[in-house]
């Protein structure tokens, strides 16, 4: 599943090719994604200039003067830039044809992605209005995280994966940041000191920033490539490494299911 760094990598990959272009034509091949693609999009966007590409959480925001196209990659979606004559492939459900002759195509085999339109302020859209701060913004820090968690008895892992607390900390990055902060994933939120919350907030920012930086090396793939930014497996210390030695103490990494998600941790280093 694309997580925040993959979405940010996608944004950086496509933005230079589509910002400032006018929409020549919108093609909807399969409208039934997670929600139906609005059928008036072709009329709404035809001839309009795409001003910029922004991101909020895992939503990509294609900004126009008269509104915003909201895109989500779901479980399996990817975006790529192709030439006008590039053959349409299976699962290519949506396409923006641009005035420079290239096209932005959404491929999504499992169709959990989304393409939606709002003519209102995008921050008020129901999908975006309740989102917590961006982990890389200044509003997100240990004191904020401590305020969110100090009265909750649920696990710290659930708190940081809740998009109302902070956006974009998916399962992989939750496991990695808790390992780096030496906090056990099942520890109750109300039993963690503010100092440890500060360490955790720093590690969340660090692990996501590193992943975004590494994602930058795959940018060329957005041009006529498969559009799939790679996962950053080489830098993961615990995620997917059950049974392997912990990089901190050498004891085996454990894997247990917590809130239906595979959770990787070191029972010695994390407490
Ligand atoms: Zn360890």
Report the sheet with the most strands, covering strand number, pairing sense and barrel closure.
4 strands, antiparallel
Tell me the β content.
Answer: 15-25%
Shape: elongated
Poorly predicted sequence stretches spanning 5 or more consecutive residues? none
Number of helices: 6
Q: Which CATH architecture of the largest domain is right?
A: Orthogonal Bundle
Give the termini distance in whole angstroms. Answer: 28 Å
Rg to the nearest angstrom? 20 Å
| Overall mean confidence score, pLDDT | 92
- What oligomeric arrangement do these chains adopt? single chain
Family: Belongs to the FPG family.
Keywords: DNA damage, DNA repair, DNA-binding, Glycosidase, Hydrolase, Lyase, Metal-binding, Multifunctional enzyme, Zinc, Zinc-finger
Active site: 2 (schiff-base intermediate with dna), 3 (proton donor), 58 (proton donor), 261 (proton donor)
Protein name: Formamidopyrimidine-DNA glycosylase
Verbal overview:
InterPro entries: DNA_glyclase_Znf_dom_DNA_BS (IPR015887), FPG_cat (IPR012319), FPG_Glyclase (IPR020629), FPG_N (IPR035937), H2TH_FPG (IPR015886), Ribosomal_uS13-like_H2TH (IPR010979), Znf_DNA_glyclase/AP_lyase (IPR000214), Znf_FPG/IleRS (IPR010663). The protein has 271 residues and is of the alpha+beta class. It has 2 domains: 4-124, Alpha-Beta Barrel (N-terminal domain of MutM-like DNA repair proteins); 142-265, Helicase, Ruva Protein, domain 3 (Orthogonal Bundle). It contains 6 helices and 10 strands, in the order H-E-H-E-E-E-E-E-E-E-H-H-H-H-E-E. Strand 2 (52-56) and strand 3 form a beta hairpin. The longest helix is centred in the C-terminal third of the chain and has 22 residues, at 194-215. The chain is elongated, with a radius of gyration of 20 Å. The model has no long low-confidence stretch (mean pLDDT 92). The structure holds zinc ion.
């Amino acid at each position: 599943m694309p997580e925040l760094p993959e979405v940010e990598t996608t944004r950086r990959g496509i933005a230079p090719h589509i910002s400032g272009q006018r929409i020549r034509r919108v093609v909807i091949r399969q409208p039934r994604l997670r929600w139906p693609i609005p059928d008036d999009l072709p009329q709404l966007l035809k001839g309009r200039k795409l001003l910029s590409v922004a991101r909020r959480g895992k939503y990509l925001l294609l900004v126009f003067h008269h509104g915003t196209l909201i895109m989500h990659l779901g479980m399996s979606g990817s975006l790529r830039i192709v030439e006008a004559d590039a053959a349409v492939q299976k699962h290519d459900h949506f396409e923006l044809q641009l005035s420079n002759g290239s096209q932005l195509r959404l491929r999504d085999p499992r169709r959990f992605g989304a393409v939606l339109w709002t003519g209102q302020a995008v921050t008020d859209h129901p999908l975006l209005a309740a989102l917590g701060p961006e982990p890389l913004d200044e509003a997100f820090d240990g004191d904020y995280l401590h305020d969110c968690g100090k009265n909750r008895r649920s696990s710290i892992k659930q708190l940081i994966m809740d998009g109302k607390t902070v956006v974009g900390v998916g399962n992989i990055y939750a496991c990695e940041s808790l390992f780096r902060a030496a906090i056990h994933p099942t520890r109750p939120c109300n039993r963690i000191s503010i100092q440890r919350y500060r360490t955790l907030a720093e590690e969340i920012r660090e692990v996501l920033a590193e992943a975004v930086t590494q994602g930058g090396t795959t940018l060329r793939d957005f041009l006529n490539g498969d559009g799939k930014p790679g996962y950053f497996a080489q830098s993961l210390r615990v995620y997917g490494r059950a049974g392997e030695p912990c990089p901190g103490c050498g004891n085996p990494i454990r894997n247990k299911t917590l809130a239906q998600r595979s959770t990787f941790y070191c029972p010695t280093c994390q407490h």
